[in-house]
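Suppose you are handed a protein chain with no further information: no name, no annotation, nothing but its sequence. What can you learn? This example shows the usual starting point.
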Amino acid sequence: MKIRNITNPQRFFEVLKDAKGRVELVTNEGDRLNLKSTLSQYIILTQIFKDAKIDEVDLIVSEPDDLNMLLDYLVRG
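A reasonable first move is to predict its three-dimensional structure. Written in structure tokens, the prediction is:
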């Protein structure tokens, strides 16, 4: 799943807390970072999203319900 233009990363991570399965960010190098991990979130916020905006990321979502939750967040904010 490719996500673009998330302007509130903090809210995005709050939504991910409710995910039942794994939600992983795929880096340009092909590494996968567990987005439910607080440590990963801090690293991502400080290193990747320096502008406080997520331009584009690839996510792997393991549970269909989590995918629906993320799609609802993206559509409704």
